[in-house]
Structures are given as structure tokens and as C-alpha cells.
Amino acid sequence: MGTRNGFIETIGNTPLIRLKAASEATGCEILGKAEFMNPGGSVKDRAAWWMIREAEKNGTLQPGGTVVEGTAGNTGIGIAHICNARGYSCVIYMPDNQSPEKVEILETLGAEVRVVPTVPYKDEMNYQKQAGRYAQSHEGVVWVNQFDNTANRLAHYESTGPEIWEQTEGTVDVFACAVGTGGTIAGVSKYLKQQRADIQVVLLDCMGSALYNFVTTGEAVMSEGPSITEGIGNSRVTDNLAGTEVDWALQVSDQDMVAMVYRLLREEGWFFGASTGINVCGAVEVAKKLGPGHTVVTMLCDGGGKYQSRLFNEEWLAEQGLHVSQVRSRLEPVSPLTLS
Ligand code: PMP
To answer: Catalytic annotation on 33?
Structure first.
């Protein structure tokens, strides 16, 4: 691979990893794109760089300027790293229902973090809208606007999609992933379907999100929640998601997700966050529906370290009605993973 020149060049070109038990249980190749290996630790490093680079190119972001964003955390972490690497200041708005670890990381990276009450998107005090207003009311500040800034999906069209195509040598049959902004599913699926129109795209949704209903009924109506997942699920179709060709959608419950992340941890040594658990559950379910011999690619979005106080805290999980004990025993590779 040679050397990589600094932080920016270390973004992307992540490995594609075969998930052992999931592949053996289904007779399919279940492959995970190792986005947790990006230098800021998540899939959002790619989008953060593409959006900042776009603002540099179009002249809205000037040397020494300030970047503001509303984020569940990972985009903010990517942005904060890039701001340090390129000499910008960084202001981050986050809803107060996210893991405290992400706030701490952002503060360590030097971002000014504004944790605000969690309110729906339609509320003017929503974290995304507050970030937008901050940029309007301050000179020299650029709002990244990851939900509706399509440089986000372009990152995945220009980097993640081509990488998956090359790494599978064109054998990928299905791309399945959960959606936050929609940048990942939109960019990757567009690129893959341009290579081979029969590649199927599956949107995986957590509970308490409107996207499953949107794909299946055409109306963005929220499903019953809540979900402890972070960074995924949405109440609306963003500009990034709009126009994406989705073949089908699946809902994955938090209990199945918890079972999966602990199983990956205890049986295979992986330490992943909740959205990755949703993704691997979904990929397994898709593989079971299609039958053996298919190649299913999903995203390993981030690592588990940011969720120690929640997803990896059994007391906290129990307070949410979720239980690890159900998955403590070693499961046979052929045991079905029941999805709601
Ligand atoms: N997983 C995690 C942990 C995330 O932070 C995000 C981004 N919010 C996603 C998945 C979803 O990615 P996208 O925004 O590209 O839909």
C-alpha cells in the first residue's frame, strides 16, 4: 500500500472484511467495509472531507475560517480532525441523547461543542437548524449541512463505491446498509448500479425511523421506537437520499442488534458500534432470503469504544429493556438470527 501523506490521504481505501460466522451461517460471502479504520474512526470521515474540500474549492471556506455542523457525533469528529489538519476552527451542535464519549472526543479535538435539547427536525431548536443559524449570524463561518449537502453522497460515489466494486472484483450482488444522512447508501448504490444494473440495494432501518415506511409505502411515517442506535434513522428524506434506487427495506430491532454486536465481540474479536450491528443483522437476513452463493456487502461504520457507557454497559442496556444474557452462550453458526 505504500505510505499515505497525512490525515487527509489516510481517509478511505479501507479493507473489505469477510465476516466469518455470518458467511458460514448463510453460505454467502458477507463482507464488511471497514470504515471504523478511517483515521477519525468512522464512515463519516469521507463525507467530512468531501464537504470541506467542496467549501474550500467554491471559496466559501477561507484560510483560518470556521466550520459549523449539526451532528450525532461522527461527522463532527471527522470535521474536527480535518479542521485541525487544515487550520480551521470548529463548532459542533449535538443533540443531548448521544453518547457522552463522542462529546468528550470532540472536546479533546478542540471543537467548541454545543449540546442542545433533543427535539424533532421540524422544531426550530433542532440541532441541525441551530447549526445553520450559527453560520448565518457569524462572519466567515461555513455550515457543512451534511443532510442536504450532496458532496456527502459524492464522497461515497467517488470513493466507497469504486473501492467495493474493485475489492469484490465485480462480484457484489447486494449492498445493504442503514441510513442517517443517506450519503453512504446513495453514493455507493449509484456507483454500483452503474457498473451492473442488477445489483440490489437494501435499506436497513432501525426502529423509530421513517425510512422503512418510506421505501415500502412511499410515505415517510415514523415507525414505533425508540432505538438506542446513534447516527442512523431519519424522519425525512434528505437531499442526499432523494433519488436513490432502493430495491427493498428491512427493519432490525435493537435486541437483534445487541445480540449481533456481542456475538461479533465474543466470537470473532470485533468491537463495533450499534449501526454496524444493524448492518450485519440486515446483511444476514438478506443473505438468508437470497440463498447461498451470493455476495452481500455492508458497512462496518464505527468501533464500539464510543459506546462503552451505553451499548457495552449491561446495566444501562437493561434500563432500556435490552439484554445481553440472551446472547451470552455461544451460538451455533447455523442458528437463525431472528429479525422483527
Ligand atoms: N453509522 C454511524 C455510526 C454514523 O455516525 C452514521 C452517520 N450519521 C451512519 C452510520 C450513517 O451514514 P450516512 O449518514 O452516510 O447515512
So the answer is: no
